[in-house]
C-alpha cells in the first residue's frame, strides 16, 4: 500500500498505523520507540500484522475519524452487505496499552477474516501462543500480548485467526493488550465503554481549541495529530511514529523519527499554544529542563522520549524495507551532531514559557543565562545545519539566524521582566549577528539569502527569516529570497529543502519535496502581501493530504505520492502556522511575525 493509505491511532504513549485494507501494519508497544510487534509496513505479512477485514472483495471502502477524535472508522461495501470497523487506542492514564477493534454489521451478512500475526523485535521473533479463557496470549521474552475476544480462534504457526459472519445490527469486539510477561495480565476493559471514554476524552480536548481562523477543520486535524505524537507521561513530542519510510522510494535516505527533536517540538508546541493548549507547552518546558543538564555544552538536538541521550543508530538487515527501500534503521546518529539553530529553539521555549506565565521563575533564570553565555562563545563556529547533513560543517545562514533569535529573545525577556544580566552586551551581539548575516549570507547579485556564507546554493530554511522576525515580511531581501527559492527549489510549485545535486550532504540519491518547506513558503508569501498566492499554494498542499487529513514528511512530484515518515509532525505544525499566517494577513495583521516566539 501507499504511505497515504494508512491512518493513525494512538494513546499518546504509543501508536499504530492501520491500512485502508484493515491491516495494522505498524505497532510499537509499550512506547513510540519500542521495538515493533507489527512490522509489515517495512516488509510483508511475515513480519507481523493484525488484519481485520471482509473475507471477500470490498467494492468500496471509506474512512473517517469521528469528529474531533483519533477514533478511526472504516466502512466496507461488499457483495454481501456492509460493515463498519472502528479502531482506537484508549488514553492510557495508569492502565496498560490497548488496541481495540469493533466490527458492526450495517447491512446484509458479511463474511469477515481476522488474522493476528505478532512478530516482536521488529519482525524477528515468533512468539509462543497459548490459549486463554477469552482468547490467546502471545509471549516473547519480556513482552506478553493478550488478545481478548468472544470469537472462536484458530492457532497455527504463531498466528491466531478467525472467520466469522457479521449481520446487520451485530457487533464483535477484539482487544489486544500488552503487559510485561513476568507480571499478571491486567483486567480487560469492555470495548464499548472504552470507545465511549476515548471519544469523550478527545472531544473534550478538541473542544478547548481556540483557533477561529481560516481552514479550521484542517488545523484541528493537525492539532490532533500533534497531540497524538506527544508523550502523555514525559511531555516529549516525537517527529513521527515510524522509522525508515523512505524519502526516495528504493533509496537509502531512511531514518528513525521516533524521537524528540528540540526544534520540531518547540515549533509544534508553539502551534498548540497558539490554539489554546498551554498544558503541552509547560510539559515540554519541564522535559527540556530535565534533559538540559547543568552544562549547556551537553544539550543535544534530540532525545529519547524519556530524555535518553544515547540513540545509537543500527540497521535491521532482516527487514526488506518499504517497497525495497534499504537499509531499515533504528536509532539516529544525528543525535551526535552540532546544530546551532537548536539553541534558538531553546530560547523560544524560554520566551514561550515566560509569555505564557507572565513571569520568569527565579530558579530558571540562571540556567537560561548559562545557555546564552555559552552561545556567546560558539555562535561563530560552523555547524551541521538544520537538515542534519552528513557532509562537512559550514556557516549555515539559518543556523546564524537562530543564533540571532537567542539574543533577540533574551533581550526581550530581560527588559520586560527587569532581569539581571549583561543586556547591553547581548544587544550588541544580536546586532553583530544581524549585520553578519546580511553581509555574508545574502547574495546581492541574485537578491536572495543563500544556504551558507559565500555559497550560491539555496536552502528553503531561510524562508523563516520573516517568520522569526529577523526582517519584515515585505523587505525586498525577503521578496527576492521567496522568488529565488520558488524558481530554483520548486518542483511543480512544491519546494525542496535544497538541491541534492548541488549540495554535498554526504548521501547518494534524491528526495521528495519537503512539505514543511512548502508551508513555510505559504507563510512567507502571506507576510509578503501575496495572500492570493499563499492561499493557492496552501490549498494545493491540502490536496496532498490523505482521505483522513494526514501528511507524510515529503511529496514525490514525479510519482505523485507521499514519501518519508508518516504522519510527520513537521508537516502538520507548519500547516497550522501557514493557516495562521493567511488568517493574520487577511485580517490586516501583516505586521505580526508568524511564530509565537516572536510575537
TrEMBL record:
Annotated GH15-like domain residues: 214-579
Taxonomic superkingdom: Bacteria
Residues of the Trehalase-like N-terminal domain: 2-150
Residue spans crossing the bilayer: none
The keyword Hydrolase is annotated on this UniProt entry: yes
Single annotated GO MF: hydrolase activity
Keyword annotations from UniProtKB, A to Z: Hydrolase
SUPFAM superfamilies tied to this protein: Six-hairpin glycosidases
Keyword Hydrolase: yes
Name of the molecule in the record: Glycoside hydrolase family 15 protein
